[in-house]
Amino acid sequence: MPVGAWSVLCAGHHNNRVRACDVHGCGAFNSKRGNGLHKAVDLVCDDYGIVNAPFSGNLAGPVSRKDPAGNQYDGVKLLSDVDCVKLFNIRPYRYIGPVAQGEALGYLLPLQERFSGITSHLQLQKCDGTDPSPFI
């Protein structure tokens, strides 16, 4: 693994695979989303699958966002000396405290109930809005 590379986030997967395009859009950074661009990366995960910490750091509380249609997405913020990410579409086991790289953070919430035909995924967003792709 290159220095600074993050570990695999989704248990049971061998790599961090970016969601390909489906009927609801594409998962790559800067993909077109409505009238804007997707400033995160969607990583393929299994519904209710365990989500692991990509790097060691501290959980810094819950995060949430709403899309233009009013759907709410919840998750958690992970902070280290060099990185800060928000992980959406997960139910964390806890919201604060230290975590080690590869430690289980929570599990993936299913998206199929709201978005039929979507590829199940977590959304990985850097806190500063830059592209996380080089690290995964």
From TrEMBL:
GO terms for molecular function: metal ion binding. It comes from the Eukaryota. Keywords: Disulfide bond, Metal-binding, Signal, Zinc. Belongs to the LECT2/MIM-1 family. This is Leukocyte cell-derived chemotaxin-2-like. It comes from Seriola lalandi dorsalis. The lineage of its organism: Eukaryota, Metazoa, Chordata, Craniata, Vertebrata.
